Fold this protein.
Amino acid sequence: MIKFQVINELCLMVTCTGGNDYIFTKAGAFIGGECRGAKNYKFNKVMLGPENNIGRAILGQLARRVTGENLPLMRVEFSGDSVTYYANQQQHIVVYQLSPGERIYVESENLLAFSKQCSYEVRFMGQGIISQKGLFTTQLTGNGPEAYVAVLVDGNPIVLSNETSGDTIEVDPDAVVCWLNSDPGFRLDVSWRNLIGQHSGESYMLEWTGSNPTTVIIQPCERNHEVRIID
């Protein structure tokens, strides 16, 4: 049995009861652990990816490298009861437990860890614009009662949701951390001002209307990535 918990906002605690289990984490994220008797957990570098067969792993690795969603992962294997801890550069951590069939989309650099009951793939989100973020994203789908995902946030997370309000949500793709279930639309605001260098800096947005409910986590720190239009 696996359980994810956040400790002091900046640390992920993973409790394993019974052993014979494993999780995937960002390579190098382990900071400490404890168990009864001899050490009963070990780390293995994930050479291709967390997919379940070699064919999917090779295709997945190629997709991640081409799209920029490549994430160095390690597999933490447990052979007994233990508690282990993970962190990354003092970033805040948010844990979400997926229901069976529920999907979460995470920017690769914001993914800290996930349990083996999450299926993993790279998702193509749109075309016509080149951006470091927003067109390709990492998709995790819950496949059981212990489908946990831990994400990293620069600063305190901000949560937006239109699941009950039906409001329209817009977010800058360079501030988005993750979102649940519904795919966003893409809003591009281009005018003659852009052609003469007078753009506002907020021309490209991810958008969810009331007809595609979602919950989005954003961070108060934008990535410095250029967005440009292609034919």
About this structure: The helical segments are 54-67, 192-195. The longest strand covers residues 92-98.
